[in-house]
Amino acid sequence: MSSARERVFANLHAAMQRGGFKVPETGTPLPLTLSRQERIDRLKTLMENMHTEVYVVKADDWLNVLKELLRQRSLNGLVYGPGTPLAAALEPSWENDLPPLIPYNEEIEQFKDRLFAIDAGITTTRGGIAETGALILWPDAREPRLLSLVPAVHIALLQADTIYNTFAEAMNSERWQEGMPTNALLISGPSKTADIELVLTFGVHGPKELIVLIVD
Amino acid sequence: MPDRPDKAYFFGTCLIDLCYPQAGLAGIELLQREGINVIFPQGQSCCGQPAFNSGFPAEARAVARQQLKCFSKDYPIVVPSGSCAGMLKHHYPELFVGEPEAEEARRFADRVYELTEFLVKVLDIHLEDRGKPIKVTWHSSCHALREMGVVEHSKALVRQLRNVELIELQKEHECCGFGGTFAIKLPEISAAMVGDKVADVRQTGAELLLAGDCGCLLNISGAMEYQNIPIPAKHIAEFILERVND
Amino acid sequence: MTEQALVDFRANFAKALNDKQLRRNLTKAMDSLRLKRKAVFADKEALERLRSVGNAIRRRSLSKLPELLEKLEKKCTENGIQVHWAETKAEANQVFLDIIRRHQASRVIKGKSMVSEETHLNHFLEEQGVEVLETDLGEYIIQLDHETPSHIIVPAIHKNRDQIAHLFHEKIPDTPYTEVIEELNAIARKTLRQKFFAGEIGVSGVNFAVAETGTLCLVENEGNGRMCTTVPPVHIAIMGLEKVVEKLEDVPPLLRLLTGSATGQMITTYFNMITSPRKPGEKDGPREVHLVILDNGRSNILADPELRQTLQCIRCGACLNHCPVYTRLGGHAYGYVYPGPIGSILTPQLEGLQNAGTMAFASTLCGACAEVCPVKIPLTDILRLLRNKSYDTQDSPTAVEGHGYKKNVSEDLAWKGWTAMNTHPAFNTLSTRMLGLIGVHLPRVGPLKGWTSVRTAPKFAKKSLHQLAKERGLSDE
Q1: How far is C195 from chain A (nearest CA, A)?
Q2: Check: CATH 3.40.50.620 for A34-215?
């Protein structure tokens, strides 16, 4: 008996023989071209509509804003990815009255117990999308995937200069097709569901809170 | 705006022929008042949609062929039904693909107008309302809405009547459940749909229901009558003619 | 061949229509979903342009389907994703079982996947002693109640909060009764967190698979999909073979169309693009990623130039939300996995007209589905075509299984009579006159019985329009 693969392709090729495929030209969606400020504003508004806390902060001030936000909450820890510029900024300046900084420095098999018990995680982002309001993340060896998912609070740092008009623009100008990472993510808010009577509720399986610091 | 023709064909539709001839006559009179010489081919019958939608395309084609024969001259074809007009305009060309009449069906389709569309777009009609103040509501047939895209013309005519207040349905864009043979093949679902439509008509507080399609009228007014709801229903042509003649 | 007993559509329909609670739950939910879609696509011109783009992308994908699937397989394999092919549901299920057995695993956590519903994966694995847990909140709710999804996007939409409150209280140990939706969500979060933590195999569907890069794209709001595809050491994704798209740049327009059409969202909370298993040095993510590509009749659908448009579908569910029939019945009444307009064109082709052909007739052809379809599938045309095939006994290379099942002498005769009446003017005149004489005294039997159960019978006019036109001296050119 032939393999499933052979049978499926035999079926497919037989179907293709029937012909009659009409393929219209693939046009483009209406373009969106916003100024830098408009991109920041739009992303902020749209993400706030989805219950994200968004702060536009100065490059020399984001760390203070972050610390202030952490002090307002009672959190048992902040997990981060060591070895990033973000880590380099956090580690030397951490203070005792802040939730302890916990590096994600082991594989999940060893780190799972701790990770599932930490209240907050912080990540960098690769960029943002103004059109729909979303963060772009490419988790990697230094900043693992679960940092932005398991802790109940996710804090993300976004450079204002990396906010694109659209997802397509981000993808095309960074030539994603030439090399996709293990995991690329768009995140537009804290985890949510409307599966019961379509009532929108935030914080189902992923983070209950998403805090974005846009560094302008 | 297309040129104003001297002559126009009138395609009466089978339902009007059988159950609502007054609506057909009203449509004819509205055209005549505008100076149109209305031609009514006596050989005409049905657009063929019942068979076309029920799995019998050959039978639909045979009946369609009869209409192609009866409306062969180069006059516009005016139809007092969005659904039948949609059949003639959009489905005749596909029904005759690969048939000797393919080109004829395409040219035929180009000449088809729904009645209110013709009155507004081609004749630029202006209505003088002589009737008493009345509240009405309007039901859009699905094919007038989606195939013909003429509902705004119909409602524009109603709005020209200064003593008529048009109160829109909450779910104007939802099907009434007629669907031709659907109402007979799956009567329970059809009943649920028309039940909701009647409730929507009632909540408007309108004294009269207007529609441009007699299938919907038959369905909704039949259900209202069955429930003893004293809201009459009328084809828009009949209503307009009454208002301008009073 | 279908593996389930013949569906009694008429009995199902009657039952659903008489369930007042179901009608209320559905009406409220569907009204809301339609409004949300309308709001997010407020700019008509932009929407039409986007729909044209979506249509072109999907048609292009289908026009080179074998080539794209080979490319997808090649890229995935290069990236370390193991690709498996399944011609049938049983083959797909066996692939899952083999992987699970190889890992000696017994705890499967699952994200939402309609294809896995199509293959009845949960039922199969449970029979083999594997625990399968649905983690999407809606799927979790219906799994607790041993139900199937009633909607392809919001699977538990037929239930209201009271019903869910009772269910949680009864089925989840130590759960107090609450009708507060936030509290119900919190209960699910707490219960499922432990399951994510302990899951050995994660299962997901695929919204789009990109041939160019070998990337699997997943759309979700809850985060359970990311959990299932990141926490366990093994991830198995399953997709219908039509889900492939050619290029990465095809994804953004389809994503906008999908989320906007489905739930009126500009974008979902998460868009998760997976291109490989955990790489050396990476600290999390599955060590193995498998992709199961299922045919199950799809390649046959591809053969017919009209019917193949069915495969353009991106499973947004907008046609369900806008269908006046679906919104009154809900999904369960259809008896098959895919309900509503898309189900009514897809299911008869997958399961055979003789089994599911009734679905093609459960529509008024009002066109609401085709009007909102984000990839412009001409649903009404395809419904009509399937109706034709239901009576068409002629064999052809692209015939749908069960074609001609509906052919019968009495209907043939009725339509022959109708044709004769409408093609012979004299006969037409005679019959309209006769009906005019009958007037309001129609016998209320046969087909008219259904009509008159909620309506008065049609009244035939004494004089037809033909007669009146003649009397008025209208020209008969």
Answers
A1: 11
A2: no
